[in-house]
Amino acid sequence: MRFHFVLILLSVMAGPAGAQPAAKPRAVNLTMREGLRFDPPRFEAKPGQELILSLENADSTHQQHNLIVVQPGSRDKVAQAALTLGDKAIALAFVPPVPEVLASSPLLDAEKSAVLRFRLPDQPGVYPYVCTFPGHAAVMFGAIYAGVPMPALNKDPHLPAYASQSGLAGGGKRPFVQRMFLPDAGPAAIAVALPGSWNFCWDAGTCRLRYIWQGAFIDAGAHWAGKGAELAVLDGKPWWQAEALENPARKAWPGMPEGIPRFLGYRTTPEGPVFRYRIGSTEITETISASADPSGLVLTVTADGSRKGSLLLERRPP
Fold first, then answer.
1. Distance from C-alpha of 23 to C-alpha of 32, rounded to nearest angstrom
2. I need a surface site. Which of 110, 229, 285, 311 has the fewest CB within 10 A?
3. pLDDT means per 10 residues in the chain (318 residues)?
């Protein structure tokens, strides 16, 4: 009987067979901005997860906005339904009483805020959010990715055209430097967008180049929407990546002294940043720039003001 009692107790503690622990609530800051846009234009969540959206109308043109979360594929239908509300529209805050609406905010005046708390359905999918104030829905919308992969920002069919720049660090400006949590890098990572379409990750913690990719710069929407711990998203996979402890600067300058590097900062130039660090008593600068031909980038090392060497970084096989 004692053994039988223990089995029952363990069963109760474990819960129903196959049950998964509920995901913690996801808190997201969403801002309505000038130009009829949501910031961020998208974010990730889990199916069935409770969301706490802190909304702020920071539109400098002082327009009113709302936010409606709807079922996948129903954004246009809900927006059209909002246009048929007639004299009930203001009382309903331009939220149509249709089953596709999952959650909605009040109509917010400029400089006003609200908190919207609700639970996503259990079905994975892309759940749109949209402002249905008259004339806004055509361009003022975003997307919640719940349990489905999030594509590159500039290839996302669920976002308005402007979003390829609004969530992109630097807004398309090149050259541009952004400290950011990046995949496959330490917490002191620095993302750099060079002129053209070159991008690279330089790790200020270990003072070395980590990887290079081409295309759009980093999508930092998830990082800015959350508590700052989310990784930025790259536009595609790196085509060159350092091996585990490889420091390509040592290949450019085989005589580099041994020791632990100490990061001294960087300065910006029209061609990109110049990184500075010290090993022992030697001050070293490192630049990564486009090569004369389109085959790759060139890493150049100087020490105490004297050029020591360079290395062509070409595409590596996966």
1. 27
2. 229
3. 35 42 83 84 94 91 93 95 92 96 96 95 97 90 94 85 62 80 89 87 95 82 59 80 92 95 92 94 94 78 94 77
Q: Which residue has the tokens 């749109």?
A: 128
Q: Determine the 3-state secondary structure of 84 from DSSP.
A: coil
SS3 content of the chain, % helix, strand, coil (to 5): 15, 40, 50
Give the Cα separation of 141 and 72 in Å (integer).
13
Give the SS3 label for residue 132: coil
DSSP string, 19-45: --PPPPPEEEEEEEETTTEEESSEEEE
Rg of the chain on CA atoms, in Å: 25
236 within 8 A of 213, measured Cβ to Cβ: yes
Cβ-contact 54, 40 below 8 angstroms:
no
CA angle 292, 297, 301 (to 5 degrees): 100
The CA-based angle 126-128-133, given to 5 degrees, is: 175
CA 92 to CA 201: how far, in whole Å?
Answer: 48
Report H helices in 21-74.
Answer: none
At 265, the amino acid letter reads G
Query: How deeply is 266 buried, as exposed, middle or buried, from its count of CB atoms within 10 A (0-12, 13-18, 19+)?
Result: buried
Instruction: Report the run of H or E that residue 89 belongs to, with start and end.
Output: none
Q: Which amino acid is present at 239?
A: W
Unique residue bearing structure tokens 């007639």: 86
Rounded Cα gap, residues 253 and 307, in angstroms: 9
